[in-house]
Amino acid sequence: MASKPAILNLSAFTEGLARVGEFGSFVGDFFKRFWRPPFEWKEVWRQMDEVGVKSFLLTAVTGLAIGVVLAMQSRGTLARFGAEAVLPKMLALSLVKEIGPVFTSLVLAGRVGAGIGAEIGSMRVTEQIDALEVGSLKPYNYLVITRVIACVVMFPILTVWADAIGLFGGFMESYIVGNVDYRVFFASAFDSLTFPDIIVDTGKTAIFGFIVASVSSFLGYTVRGGTREVGQAAMQSVVTSILLILVADVIVVAVSLALFAPD
Amino acid sequence: MEAARSDETLRPATADGHAGPAWPLGKPWPEAQPLGSGPPPDDIMIEFRDLYKSFGEKHILRGVTMAIPKGVSTVIMGGSGTGKSVTIKHVVGLLKADQGEVWVHGENVDELSKDGLDQLRLKIGFLFQSGALFDSMTVYEQMDFVLKRHTDLDADGRKDRIMETLEWVNLPKTTSQYPSELSGGQRKRIGLARSIILQPDIMVYDEPTTGLDPISVRVVSNLINRLRDERGITSMTITHDLLCAEMISDHVFYLLDGVYAESGTLAEVAQSDKPEIREFFGDEYAMMFKTVRDGA
Amino acid sequence: MNRSARVGALLIAGLAIFLVAVFILANSKSLLSKTRTINTEFYNISGLLIGSNVQYQGYNVGRVERITLPRRPGGKIQVEMKIDEGAAHLIRVNTRAQIQTDGLVGNQIVTLVANPVQALQVPENGRIEGVEPFSLSAVTDRALESADRLDAITETVGLIVQDVRNGEGSLGRVLYDPALYNSLNRTTATTEQLVSTLNQQAVVLSATAQRVAATADAATQNLDRTIQNLNTTVGTVNDKLNSRTGTVGRFLNDDAVYVQLLSTADSLRGLSTSVRAVARNAEELSAWSALGAFRFAEVMEAAKHNFLFKSYFERRGYQEQAPFEIRERAIRASQEEIERRQRELLDYEQRLRARAAAQGTTLDSLGGN
Question: What is the distance in angstroms between the Cα of C105 and the nearest Cα belonging to chain A?
């Protein structure tokens, strides 16, 4: 079979542009087909299980570790200036605003992105996607839309968990080291937060989820070749997702700062 | 192309011998209509008209023209990378022609709307090389998935249909198994069961017996024959497997350099003068056919 | 657990955590509770922002809701605050709003300063007076001036007491000498004047910590001396009274002496109250000085740990303890000293009163004879 797009006379740059264009129309398809049947609710549920429940332990451990480590690391610096009292505020702000959402998304990009890239990629090379296509089973709806929905829903949920567990980890550290009462800790922690913090910064992970799911699906969906290419697609899914998450974060933060000026 | 051979029977001389195809013996093999002449006659199920397809610089198909009548089992043979899979993917619209027309069931595949193509695809069963079973579903679930989406049957009706089909491929006990738990031959048979569960008129088989042991090859080949004989299904099969080709072929096309270099019964194609084809079949094989024919 | 249950549990619990967080946040930002809108105005809001905390005596009671610029140059900036309904009854028409810097982070907050004088509650959309954030340099001089005057007064008191103790040899002379009464009265008046001056600037603070500390220290020493003198005087008077010898009986039978004694006690009590007020103001002053010193300490501490400045500080031998730290401690010490003296003064006053009361009874019985 010779179905490899060998565009030899084009430079790598134009080929890259062509890929970006392809990705654009791939994402465009999402918004076109999202509204039309078939609605694969059962598969959405299965993907939520895959993305959410099966990543829970990972994000929980990540959150806990971040919370504890952040508290331990900050304590020394703050103590030098006699400002240990601001530790809960600092912890809550950095966890909820940036570290929680971004760390969770990056960890999930690793797990979920690779999973989606590899799964859809191998479905491509084993002709399962063709089989769905030929069976009029709308593989895009079945494979891509379900995963995008699952990620868009689950990323914020897992972020909330990671934030909460991270804050709890920070509290445990403060409790063990400084014997800080939980009411003091959480009152102080919540005192520093504002609504845009909690809503925008948690909500932005939905965008990250969209990025991870769509990029990974795209790279898996367009795999040509065999197992080696599937492996590459999985790797590229992770790398591209992570890069795009970081870029998107900059944009989201810039926009949210413009919209909700902090006090 | 030498498509028509009025002086020969279209039936190959196979050891099994099977019931006659819908295309009567002795009737000359039909010619494809010229480009732009509208739908082919009713008894022609699939027709390629001057089909061109290239991928980048690689020109795979360079003017493929052929007609496949109703109820006939056609086999496409040829070396690796000669465009056999590319040809059959045009039948179900997985690939779009660069030039030329593909007529299936009286409709021009490339001009169909999305919905039209979906409707047409329901009349075509496609057995992929690997079986292409959905990894995440059990045998029962993948068949149920197809039925749920495309029929109005209730749960009991679907169950009856699934069990009936599974029994037909003689694998009724695999319902709760996942594809990874099945052997290669079982996967092919489940793939076959899944592709016929909507009772199509046309079957396309992409190397149905590759990688199977001879017993499984016979089992699968017999199922293909039964589909033609019991249900009158028109089929296109890609195979390298001479045993399978012998068992199922009514008519053979040999693909060379992007066009059909030879067309006829397996015996005729095997005895072609073209060196590439002779090399494909081997001299002994051609001699065997010659002996069989001379003996008859 | 099957798939649906797993996913459902994760989703619901995740949403629940989110909602709880939102609820807590909403609660802490007074978005859900009833609030009362109260307005105030300042010429200068020192960078106050919408959403800044409003504190009543250090307790968070609301937020700044809106800040409106004046219509023409020189007008006051309008600040609208939302105060929790639970704390609204504490905000009276004579409550003052003041802009202060909150803690280490340096956020600007509005502080509501209570006035113990009874007044009506501020109604919804009512207005209270805003106290301008003071200008440091303007205040420092006045504070120091007051401190100097306190110094002078305590010295005067000291001299008077000295005279009393010497008494030119006779207690009767002392007690009848209008000079003492006048002198005490004068002292009281001076002190009260000082107190009122200080009160006018009560909120006014901060200062070059060193000078304030030094002055406060000197003042304390003088006060100390004064109180010692007073103690001695009282002791002498007591001795004389208790001995009931010589001319004492005459003194005690004389109504004029009694009246005089009482009025002296009253004056002294008044003085002590004033001194207490002075001490309170000094305390406030030193607290602000301490804050200033603390801020400075922070910067210096940071500088000391910065690798660029480290070697400099080490060379200067400042690594261990900075002068401001020593000064800070000195200020605190003198503050404690002032408090102690104040307690002693109070104690003395009570003793004097008790003695006077006791003698009063004796007087009556004597008069009966």
Answer: 9
Q: C116, C131, C146: which is the final residue of a domain?
A: C131
Tell me the C-alpha distance between A205 and A152, whole Å. 8
Alpha helices in B151-259 (DSSP H): 155-168, 184-196, 214-231, 242-248
Query: In this complex, does chain A touch chain C, defined as having at least 3 beta-carbon pairs under 8 Å apart?
Result: yes
Q: Quick one: C194 and C95 in the same domain?
A: no
d(CA C241, CA B20): 149
As for the ipTM of the complex, it is 0.83
Of the candidates B55, B57, B126, which has its C-beta nearest A3's C-beta? B55
Environment class of C303 (CB within 10 Å of its CB; exposed 0-12, middle 13-18, buried 19+): middle
Do the chains contact at C29 and A195, CB–CB below 8 Å? yes
Select from A56, A86, A190 the Cβ nearest to the Cβ of C104.
A86
Q: For residue A263, give the nearest of C17, C24, C52 by CB distance.
A: C52
Asked if B212 contacts B185 with a C-beta cutoff of 8 angstroms, the reply is yes
With CB atoms and an 8 Å threshold, state whether B134 touches A132.
Answer: yes
CB nearest to C305's CB, from A80, A160, A186? A80
Q: Do C3 and A153 touch (CB under 8 A)?
A: no
Count of Cβ atoms closer than 10 Å to residue C343 Cβ: 12
Q: In total, how many domains does chain C have?
A: 2
The tens digit of pLDDT for each residue in C219-230 reads: 566 656 665 665
Q: What one-character-per-residue DSSP string does B31-82 give?
A: PPPPTTS-SPPTTEEEEEEEEEEEETTEEEEEEEEEEEETT-EEEEEE-TTS
CATH number of B1-133+200-212+234-264: 3.40.50.300
The pair of structure tokens assigned to C30 is 């007074």
Instruction: Classify residue B282 as left (phi > 0), alpha (psi -120 to 50) or beta.
Output: left
User: What's the pLDDT at C141?
Assistant: 54
Residue of A54, A167, A263 to mutate, interface with C, max C Cβ within 10 Å = A263
What is the spatial distance between Cα C129 and Cα C94, in angstroms, rounded to a whole number? 8
Q: Is C128 helix (H, G, I), strand (E, B) or coil?
A: coil
The alpha carbon torsion through C206, C207, C213, C218 (nearest 10 deg) reads -110
Q: Judge whether C3 lies within some domain.
A: no
CA distance B27 to chain A (A): 33
Sign of CA dihedral B149, B152, B154, B159: negative
Distance to chain A for B59, nearest Cα, Å: 9
* B64-84 pLDDT tens trace: 888 888 888 899 988 887 888
A2 and B60 within 8 Å at the Cβ level: the answer is: yes
What's the pLDDT tens digit per position in A93-150?
999 999 999 999 999 999 999 999 999 999 999 889 999 989 888 899 999 999 999 9
Any domain includes C14? no
Residues 6+ apart with CB under 8 A from B52: B59, B61, B62, B63, B97, B98, B99, B100
Question: CA–CA separation, A159 vs A201, rounded Å?
Answer: 10
Residues C319 and C203 in one domain: yes
Tell whether A193 lies on the interface with C, counting CB pairs under 8 A: yes
Range of the structural domain that residue C121 is part of: 33-131
Cα distance from N-terminal residue to C-terminal residue, chain B: 27
Is the distance from CB of C54 to CB of C109 less than 8 angstroms?
yes
Rounded Cα–Cα distance for residues C224 and A112 (Å): 77
